[in-house]
Amino acid sequence: MARRRTTDTDADDLPRYFVWVRGLEGPEPQKWMAMDFGIGDWKRPLVLAYLELPEDERRLSLSMLARRYPPPRDDLS
């Protein structure tokens, strides 16, 4: 039986979604465990875009994910 290192984290314990939200100074990247919008869906208008991450990308840092998946364009027209 194969042994796992105790420092390894299960993929289930890692954030599953990469999300761009409306911030005070523009789009901000976040990692979420679930697409739970809370009571009354109050978070929904703040979400600009989201992506379910493949298991191999769930360990990446926010900065790496932000470079890989840039924020959506905010067209003013």
Question: How do the strands and helices of this protein lay out in sequence?
Answer:
Layout: E1 17-23, E2 26-32, E3 47-52, H1 62-68
Antiparallel strand pairs: 1-2, 1-3
Q: How would you characterize the overall build of this protein?
A:
This protein is mostly beta strands and 77 residues long. The chain has one domain (13-68). The protein is 9% helix and 26% strand. The protein has one helix at residues 62-68, and strands at 17-23, 26-32, 47-52. It has a three-stranded antiparallel β-sheet with strand order 2-1-3, covered by helices on one side. Strand 1 (17-23) and strand 2 (26-32) form a beta hairpin. The mean pLDDT is 82.
Number of strands: 3
Strand content: 25-35%
Structural class assignment? mainly beta
Number of domains as seen in the coordinates:
1
- Low-pLDDT windows of residues: none
Shape: flat
Key structural traits:
77 residues; mainly beta; 1 helix; 3 strands; 26% strand
Briefly summarize what is shown.
With 77 residues, the chain is mainly β. The chain has one helix at residues 62-68; strands spanning 17-23, 26-32, 47-52. The chain is flat.
